[in-house]
Each structure stands twice: as structure tokens, then as C-alpha cells.
User: Fold these one by one.
Assistant:
Number 1:
Amino acid sequence: MQRDPGTCKLRAPLKRSRILHMALMGGPDPYSEPDASREKPFLLRALQIALVVSLYWVTSISMVFLNKYLLDSSSLQLDAPIFVTFYQCLVTTVLCKGLSTLAACFPGAVDFPTLCLDLRVARSVLPLSVVFISMITFNNLCLKYVGVAFYNVGRSLTTVFNVLLSYLLLKQTTSFYALLTCGVIIGGFWLGVDQEGAEGTLSWTGTLFGVLASLCVSLNAIYTKKVLPLVDGSIWRLTFYNNVIACVLFLPLLLLLGELQALRFFVQLGSAHFWGMMTLGGLFGFAIGYVTGLQIKFTSPLTHNVSGTAKACAQTVLAVLYYEETKSFLWWTSNLMVLGGSSAYTWVRGWEMKKVQEEPGPKEDEKNSMRV
């Protein structure tokens, strides 16, 4: 049976919006179709998946450690987190526009949507862009004030806010088992805060920024789904608009917070090493969006969530080893509670979505038998 070409064109942006829904709800896409890659030999598919997952891990972990260096390095001594975030948005904007230009010049070699700034669309995207700016700013401020080892626990309430906002904004209820996993996450968060305080390394400022970052991540997922149709369902167009608006809105913040004045007296402002690290941070920020989509494409939203949880565990262990920290048994327990609760929530939501997907089957059979 042949498919209508127009239908095929619409299918890609629809899948991207469903990915965002899955990121919010933590379950697999009930409407997903078998991927063509499943027809490939097992060893080839396994190798592809291993490479994609490894690429995601390396990109994500490298970005966190590099941002920590830029935000809170004793050797760099740069106290300008808003400027670091602004520059990363600027790099992403330039990369998006550059790839769009290349795609226009070499349509067969580069696959990237055409990007043009429409002020009417920009005004519609503005509320989401404010949430996006808050999300990346609070993420970086959290990382500035807390250690990389505690970073995962500090931002662990995203799942809890997903459930809460799904009820408040979308009127979607959550099962008892999913709520139970959220309770485990909250318990792990508070135990982690308690243990950081007991070790004398707790930053209430960083913890507050982590909670705000978690809230903004959830809001970003919800509003992204609403705004996507305005940019023809294209994640890259939305990325372009978000980062262009962020660059504009960050400028007055740089003036108000005095970071431009701080940059004037920054001794490494003319250093090639500094600008190289800043640009690399921007490249990682751009790449994480691509490799996240790539991992979901080659695996599934459910597997992506599991991979993200395992990556967070590896990141915590690497941070403890790299910074030569000593952590108590209860501190590790808090991390395991957060990671275990997040994994359990992903599994529960996946099981529930699968159950919902299978339920309509018998009803359809009854209808068909009635017709006969």
C-alpha cells in the first residue's frame, strides 16, 4: 500500500512533538511505528546503539564538567554565569543559522530546515523563551554553587514537577505507583541535602537554583509542546527562536547585574584558551539536543530515560573520583534513591502506557463481531 507523500512530510514533526510528550510523561510513544533500523542485522544494530548511547554519555558528561570549569574554576576566576550562558546561546544561534545556510547551498548533503526570523512568530514564542532562559540560567547557577557530584540530586525534582504540573495545567492524574516513585525521589533529595549539610558542603543557594531549574525543565516541556505548531513542528526552528530571543534578553541582564563591568577586569579576556573553552561549551550545548534526538531515534523514549539515569550515576561517580571527594554511606544512599525512583517512574509510566495501548483491542473486536 502506498502512502500519501503529504502524510509522510507531516510525520517527522509529529514524532518530535510526541518525544516532548514522552519526556514529560516518562513513557513510550503508543503511536510509534517500528523503526526501519530493526530490519538491519543484530550486530549492526547493537553497534549503532552502543555508539549513539556512548556519544550521548560523552557529550552530556563533558558538557557538565566543562560548564563547571567555566562557572566556578579557581584557575579561571570568572564570576559571570549570565555571560557564560549568553555566549553559549550565541554559539547555538550561529550554528543553527550556519547549518541552515549550508542546507540551502547543498540541499542533498546537509539536512537542516530553513531558518528565517519572523517577528510575529517570535512574539508567540516569547513566553516559552522566557521559560527556556530561566531553565538554562538556573541550571548553570545551580552548577556554579554546588559540586558536580551533588548536581544530579540538586536537580532531581523534575519528575515530581512533571506530575504536579501535569495535574495543575493538563488535568492529568497520576497512578498510585507513579506517586510512590515520586515519594522515593523526594526522600532521596532531602536525604542528599541533609548529607551535604552534614559534610559542610551544602549550598542552599545552589539547591534553590536546582529546584527552580527542575521546575523550569517541566514547564519547558509543557510549553514546547504547545508552541511547536507555530514553527511547523520543527525542533531546530524552535531552538533557533529560543536562542535568538535569549541573546537579546540576556543583554540588559548583563548590564543590570554588572557582569560586563566584571569582564572588563577579567585577566584572561584576551586568552585564546578561554574563548576556546567558551566556544566548546557552546558546541556541547548545541550537540546535546542533536544526540538526545539521535538516542531516542535509535532506541526509544523509555530507553533514553534509562540511559539518562545510568549516565547520571556514572557522572556522579566520575565527579567524586575526579575531585577526590569522600562521601558517606547515606550520601550514596540518597543518590541511589533518586536514581532508583527516577528509573522506577520511567518503568511504571511505560507499563501504564503499554496497558492503555492494549486495552482498546477487545472493544474493537466486539464492534467487529456486532457488525458481522
Number 2:
Amino acid sequence: MWWGRLPRGCCCRRARAALPGRRGSSWPGGRAVSLAELLQSSVEPEEPAAARRRPPQEGTVLLFPGQGSQFVGMGRGLLRYPNVRELFRAAEEVLGYDLLSLCLRGPQAELDRTLHCQPAVFVTSLAAVEKLNHQQPSVIENCVAAAGFSVGEFAALVFAGALDYTEALYAVKVRAEAMQKASEAVPSGMLSVIGHRESNYNFACLEAREHCKSLGIESPVCEVSNYLSPDSRVIAGHLQALEFLQENSRKYNFKRTKMLPVSGAFHTRLMESATEPLADVLKSVEIQKPFICVYSNVDSKKYMHSKHIQRLLVKQLVSPVKWEQTMHAIYERKQGVEFPYTYEVGPGKQLGAILKNCNLKAWKLYKHIDVSDEEEEET
């Protein structure tokens, strides 16, 4: 758990008694209550436990970004907050290099490398939680659900008490290095696609694979790797397949396509070689049931127990990120029930933009926790 090996002042150490599932929790039976239960809690017989439930609007959701959100200078605006420097010092011991210097000064090309940016986003996101706890501790205490995009899922699980910070960071290190190696084995990449509701992504991928076969590529890969919003997907695979899709974008009713600045086809079977190193390290990591609801990228469902987490974190490497489905799962509610406040903790605002496209009403209660030095002074 985050508070297990870091300074005693870290917010998760202080706040864990207030999180769902802890003894003394204000929620019935000390169990984790799902977000749907919280949002849709209706008028039940007035038992003492039910009466202690928080009103729906008091619940909060934390979203943790993934690779691609990093930028040089991230973290500079967090250093004034308690425990942030300790987070980065602990990271330096685990990683063997000065992560804080890389985040603050770059160079960007080094920060963008998979083996660097994944730990960088992970640590910076948890440092942003420290800032949020300093500014609004009630947000941490009232958090009912969390989700993380790709590597952000590790940060969400640390926040939720399922993983120890240093052990999770080491797992992220191994994951990032294995994904970097897998990326270098095959010329591959990821293509962001803005389409229409009539766009047939699977058919486009099929024809792109057939094109690759005509070029002599055996077992070509081209598939949806990220489900972002109703009209937005990321397609990953062999570079020749992605180039084919760009050249034929009109045929498939794609409004816009753009190659992403990543080194490989993440969340496809081209990452198969990275699964064994991650699986091995996760066997040695202590995993506990999260204190709050954490949603898996693989199936957009809540993690239920430690073996479930261990299995799906590995499967995530070769499975599409079902982020759109996760947003629907988190924010589903009965008509008239208020939405929770949502906080994106970490670099960038991409998850907020996606939320806006998935659920405009939920997005209206969205806030971003800035990690740069350009933030406004606290009022």
C-alpha cells in the first residue's frame, strides 16, 4: 500500500481509515460500496447503516492518465506540497535514475521513451493526489471509485490500497522495459482515428491486414487497441497497415487520422513478449482487495480480488483498453440522481476530453489537478 513504505504523512496513509472497506467506515458493514450503489441509492428502510450513506453528490471519482500525457516540466507545480519530493526520492531508488530531473528538464525525447514515460506518469499522478489532498482533503476521503488508463491503472490501484507504491513502481518499470523491447522487435505503431457512427473499424482493420499479407507480412496485426468515445478509436498494429488506413481513410468514413508518438502497437498481441516479465514480477507483489471500486481496462468491470487484479494487469498488455465502456460503467445512474465530482490527477487533460465526449453531464463536474508550474496561485 502507498502508505506502507513512504513517509507517514502521505495522504493515503492518513486517509485510509476514511476509505470504503475500512473499519470505522461510514458505509454499511465496512464493505466497499459500488459507485452505482452510491449514485443510485434510493429511499430504503431507514436502518442506521443506510442513513449514514453519503449523498450522491458528495462522492468523488479519480481518473489517472496513461502514456502519452507526459511533458517536460510536469511535476514542477507539485514540489511545494508535502511528501511529493519523498515520492520522487523513493522512485529514484527503485528506478536507478533521477526521475524528477527527467520530468522537470527532459529532454523530451528521453521522457517520451516507453521505459521512462510510464514510471514518470505513474509517479507524477500520485504526486498530484498529494496536491489534491492538501487542497481538498474531503475529495480523498469521499472517493468512491477510480480508474486509470493503461499504466494509469497501476496508480489507481496504489491509490485504492491494492498495491504498495514501491512494489507497483517496480512492476511499472519492468512493464515499461518489456514493452519498449517488444516495440523494437517489429515496426509498429498506433493510429488515432476520429470517425462517424457508421465507421466500420473492424472491417477497415481486416482490409489493412489483407494488404499487409499482400506485402509478404506473416500474421499481420491491425486492430482496435483503445475504445475512447463513440466516435474515437485508436488502431494499432504493423506500420504498413496503419499507413494503408491513412491512405484509405475516406473509404472507411474516417474524419481524421493521426499517428501517435509511441514506439509500438500497445494493447495488441505484438506485446505478447512483455506479458511474461510482468506476470513474473506480479507474482512477487502483495496485492490486496481495493478499498474503493477500481475498474479494469480489460472488461470495464470492478476488480473483485487480488488474483483478479494479478491476471487482468497482465492481460491488459495484449487487450484493448475499454475506456469508453469504463466511463459508462462508472457514470451509469438512474434519471435524476446527481453525478459525482471527477478529478483527473496527473499530466494532461485527455481523460477529461474523453469524458466530455462520453458523458457531457458527468463532465460538467470534472476538474483537472494541474502538475505544471503554470498553475494559478492558490486562493
Number 3:
Amino acid sequence: MLGARGAAVARGLQVLTHSWRRDSRALALARACGAPRAGHWQPSAGPGPRRSRLSLSAAAVVNSAPRPLQPYLRLMRLDKPIGTWLLYLPCTWSIGLAAEPGCFPDWYMLSLFGTGAVLMRGAGCTINDMWDRDYDKKVIRTVNRPIAAGDISIFRSFIFLGGQLTLALGVLLCLNYYSIALGAASLLLVITYPLMKRITYWPQLALGLTFNWGALLGWSAVKGSCDPSVCLPLYFSGIMWTLIYDTIYAHQDKRDDALIGLKSTALRFRDNTKRWLSGFSVAMLGALSLVGVNSGQTAPYYTALAAVGAHLAHQIYTLDIHRPEDCWDKFTSNRTLGLIVLLGIVLGNLWKEKKTDEAKKSIGSRIEN
């Protein structure tokens, strides 16, 4: 009897040991998949079905769109609107500078150029991804782009590109004839820019020529033609700005670019990047100062330029070109820089009315005396 009981106890222990090992393996697998450890607090989902958190970010909006539409929205980079901002902001500078003294920028023109920026940035990204589809498959950051990943065929990309350009043409036709011709002239830059990284270490310069065309177009849309004394230094300052932020951006991919034979200013400047960026910053601030002088800007504008200088100095001083995440953060911070310039232009223009009124009062008092 004792022998039978001992055998039963032994079998029970074997069953418990086997069960414990199985549960341990299951727990390890769960932890590997991201399950919380015991004693780690997790927010309770509460009673009833789970609800996804409401998010108004661009990426969340794209992810909530109908699934067949999502690859096209990602092809336009609607999930990453920073590029649209960087294309749009030079347009707003030019429109703001063209406003009458004491007036806000033309809201109709701002909305029109905003629509155009979304469409043309989308068209530019579509062209870029069509040219670079074979390269994108070899770069970690771009391997999931819709064309490279096979989510959209080349034929459908052409059709989608045609639709974007048609809509953009509709926006352009709302402007005066001078601006229509000027805007159409930028199409060659839009098409050829993606090829520059194959033949020169300065593709960022080509991007600057393309992305800042709005600095010319915004003024002509309001005034009827370009004033070279204002538009050319503004265009030049935008090009310098693009060389700054896109060189920082290019440092994210420099290892992959070097392996597959693509060129960039990041590979050209290497460890001397901060010196080059400092030079571009000085040139940008100098050109913006010339814009202010030639357009009769006032104290708020130059105050904004001082803030822009401080922003650039902080960007460059704290930049770590060997950390892609830091490069991305510095790159996206340039939206704030562009908005500071816009704010300075608007406030400086409103200040002009105050100065004009003071001058009129002074002249009136002199006449009375």
C-alpha cells in the first residue's frame, strides 16, 4: 500500500513539474511578445469594449482613411506634413512681404498657395519615388514606401501623378498671367531634382532651387510681377535654409547612400558639416536682412531675425550628425523657424502703419506751427 501511495505521489510531482515548465515557457513567450511583468502597473481598459484613442496627427488621419486609399496618401507624404510646411512657408513670406503697409497677408492667396503646396509636394514625392523605386528598396528608412513595397504599380503612379498635376494646374490658373508662366517654369525643376543625387554631391542645392520657387511666385501673385530687390534675396535666403535643413536630413541615410552610390551634401561635408551649416546660416540671415531693408521692414521683423539666428545656432550647436533620430528632430524644428520669419514679416508690416501714422501727425503738427 505504501509503495502504491509513493508511486502516486511521484506521478503527481511529475505532472506538477511538467505543468510548471510549460507555464514558464508560455510566460517567457508572452514577455517576449510584450506582455507586462507581474507587479508592473498597466492602465485598465475599463468595462465594455476597448476604444482606440482619438488622435488628430497626420499619420493617424491617414491610417483611419479607407485602406485602398492609404498607399496613395502615403505616396503624397500626407502622413509626414513637414515637407509641405517647408514648401509652403517661403510662399507665405513672399505673400506677407507683398501686403500693403498695415495689412495682414492676403488670406485668399495664403489658402490658394496652401492647397498648391499640398498638391505639388505630393506630385514631387510621387516623381521622386518613381525615379528612386529601386534605390528605396535598399534603404531601411524608405523600403516601405508604397511604390518600393509594391503597394502601387508604376502605371497607377503615373495616373495619380497626372491627377495631382491637373489639380495643381487648376490652382495655378487662378493667378495672373505672369504668375502662371512663372509657376509653369518650375515644373522642370520638380521633374529633374530626384536625378541630382545620382550625379552631384549637391542635390540639396537643386532641392533649394525647387522648394523656394514660391518666394518668387507669392510676390508676383499679389503684385503682378516680381520685384528683384526683394524677391531675389528672399529666394536666395530660402535656398540657404534648404541647404541647412536638408543636409541635416541627409545625415539620416548617409551610410545607405554611400553603399548604393547616391550622393548628398552630408557625404560631401562629413565631419565639417557644422562649419558649412554655420556659413549657410550667416548667408541666410544676411539675405533676409537685405530683404528687410529693401522692403522697408520695421523693428518686429529684425527682432524675428534675431530669434531665427538663435534658433539656427541652437540647431547647429546641439546637432549630432551620427544620431538619425536627432537629425530628424532638428530637421522638423525648421517649421518653427519658418513660422518665426512669417510672424516677423506680418508684425513688421503692421508696424509700418503705426510709423506712417506717427509721421503724418508729426508733419501735421509742423504745418500748424
